[in-house]
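Sequence in, structure out.
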Amino acid sequence: MKTATVRLSPRGVKTVLSGRLWLERRDLSEWPEEPLGEEVRLVSPEGYFLARGYFNPQSRIPVRIFSREDRTLDRAFLAAVFRRALSLRQRLYPGEEAFRLIHGEGDGLPGLTVDVYGKVAVVQISTAGFERRRETVVAAISEVLSPSAVVLKNDLPVRREEGLELYVEVVSGRLDSPVEITMDGLRFLVDPLHGQKTGFFLDQRENRRFIRRLSREALVLDLFAYTGAFGIYALSGGARRVFSVERSAKALELAEECARINGFGERFFPIQSKVEEFLRDAPDADLVILDPPAFIKTRRALSSGREKYREVNRRTLSALKRGFFFTSSCSQFISAEDLLTLVRSGARGRNLRLFARHFQAPDHPENPAHPETLYLKGFTFAVDL
């Protein structure tokens, strides 16, 4: 089947040459009559080839680019991209069994995320272009990784904007959930089927290592703890006690089991509670970890989300007499400087010394043409020390 050719506007040509992988309607000088998810060749007004992408007339981003070469989005193409990505991760994290293989636009494949947990690959597809090729994606992953199971964790709400259904499915092999992984000599349990995102937050890997260095003899509050990874790292660094605060009973069960299998059960205290309620009568801590969910998931929620970040940081600082304070945001809609301003506004005269800035782990690469790909940011402060 012949691939449709789409002429770009002068603005669209500039967008492509800038390195950006998203094209808006005004970037196209003609509107193709192609079905949802179909490939298109993108050319200049003079007819010179520029890139290949896939098309979705229902989306606010009708074309997403996947290649600067005139190649189709088939198994061979994807396998080659996956191999390059795997080689990079093996250089970043030699011998490690858990990592992000594909980070969407950061790896040149908008709409596709692939996380690896040992022999299990977890795939998230957020666009019609990749949903249409889900079998091709799975085949390429199987070719490159030979996993024991492949999970499609396609429950992202953003899929609705692409006209896609939400579902979770084991499409290859068998999965005995949860999956156990080892990281830095520590054992963790990952639930790809029912957990948040793909089951584990690989993006905080380097930040957890940093926290471990601050934890010796500390009483630690791990807020919005999920399955307790920050707390486990703190315990491995010599923390006296960790209070792990999380609303989800299932997540706390995994956290408690992780503490037990690592030999930290007697120093680990799971607390099922809203963070705001826990902070009203929180124990005196030496180190507080604040890792909330994304309070700003759309631009429409910017104002209310900023206030949530301000308030939760204010309350946390109010509960910390003196010690270390780690805070972060995983929302792409708030910058590091915005978050810093919100934290400062809630400090109310406290003596804050900022001595570390944090970002996502390098297996979540940033595409400089897509600021959205640098979404995780955080800070560590010494408070009244």
